[in-house]
Amino acid sequence: MEKRVVFEHRWLPYALLAPQLLVTAVFFLWPAGQALVQATQLPDPFGLSTEFVGLENFEYLFGDRYYRASFLTTATFSALVTAVSMSVALLLAVLADGVIKGSGVYRTLLIWPYAVAPAIAGVMWLFMFNPSIGLVAYWLKAFGVTWNHVLDPEQAMGLVVLASSWKQVSYNFLFFLAGLQAIPRSLIEAAAIDGATAWHRFRTIVFPLLSPTTFFLLVVNVVYAFFETFGVIDTITRGGPGQSTMIMVYKVYADGFVGQDLGSSAAQSVVLMGIVGMLTVVQFRFVERRVHY
Amino acid sequence: MPNRRSLAATAVALTLSAGAFATPAAAAEIQFWHAMSNRLNELLDEQVAKFNASQDEHTVVATNKGNYSEALNAGIAAFRAGEQPTLLQVFEVGTATMMNAKGAIKPVHELMAETGTEFDPSIYLAAVAGYYTTSDGKMLSLPYNSSTPVLYVNDDALADAGAADMPLQTWDEVGEVLAKLQEAGNDCPMTTAWQSWIHLENLSAYHDVPFASEDNGFAGVDTTLELNGEAQVRHVGNLGQWAQDGRFVYAGRRNEGGARFNAGECALFTESSAGYANTRAQAEFDFSIHPLPYYDDVEGAPQNTIIGGASLWAMAGKSDEEYQAAAAFLNFLSTPDIQAQWHQDTGYLPITMAAYEQTKASGFYEENPGTDIAIVQMTGKAPTANSKGIRLGNFDQIRGVIDEELEAVWTGDKPAQEAMDSAAERGDELLRRFERTAGR
Question: Could you give the CA distance from residue B186 to residue B180 in angstroms, rounded to a whole number?
Answer without folding.
Answer: 9
